[in-house]
Amino acid sequence: MNSTLHTHRYLLQYAIKPSVQRTAVMDYLLKNRTHPTIDEIYTALSPSMPTLSKTTVYNTLNLFLEKGAVQALVIDEKNARYDIDTSAHAHFICKKCGKVYDIFGLKPEVFELPQNPNFTIDSVEIAYSGTCNACKES
Amino acid sequence: MNSTLHTHRYLLQYAIKPSVQRTAVMDYLLKNRTHPTIDEIYTALSPSMPTLSKTTVYNTLNLFLEKGAVQALVIDEKNARYDIDTSAHAHFICKKCGKVYDIFGLKPEVFELPQNPNFTIDSVEIAYSGTCNACKES
DNA sequence: TAATTGAGTTATAATGACTACAAAGATATA
DNA sequence: TATATCTTTGTAGTCATTATAACTCAATTA
User: Does nucleic acid strand D have an atom less than 7 angstroms from the CB of B54?
Assistant: First the structure.
């Protein structure tokens, strides 16, 4: 099953010129909704693309960010994490294992941008933290 | 005006054994509600404490974190920032100058912790971003 | 008081994420 | 096909943070 065509069109929607590497990265993001880090993306793609450079993954994600195709999460202190789902949703990070999960179904007013005379606010990020069940049990 | 006594008692409330360095760092945090970075704290205290080591500032803030005396903010991708105000409030970061401001007066339900069968959620951080007035004008 | 112990501090080195840069490769245009 | 431009790549560099080991000093004990 070849999803390259779909991913190709997806990139063009954001005015991103497709290349083999860009298509592979975006394809990975579309299929792995796990808020991956640069290193996770690189490690996943590297076996099937041995010449891939980690710098390219950095460049590609920075380009996706500029074009608004992905969102950078600041929930993880260690690494930048990326999310292709730019709809209104929150995140949860497990302080033990470090995994990041989506939180859907919150009240819409939580995502409202407040008026403030001192700033122009144009986005909000909501980060919950605690312990996931898997870590709790162990 | 000597505030060391007050700060001294403040540390003891969190079961932190006071030392000259710890008192100085906590005193700085209490008087400068600017969500400072490690480097900002070190640079501010260094002139009056020439032997102060940056490692000590790192150690001290990590101790304060463990003891719950300060909160670490994840809003800034570049550096860790620290806040002694652990009450329910949000933050705003200006994407141009990088300064972090407090946002008070939000509806209480924004800070409510949702129930979720998969996680035990014990805190929330709300991070707005955009441009501050000063950067907008320039 | 003197010796001892251990917490706290310090400086240096090491780690790791991210960026800068320049060369090599691929793609588009004439 | 030739040329110009974009993209990728590897290396080197930067910077925040942590690890480590030596040192300082205050509290404790004899």
Answer: yes
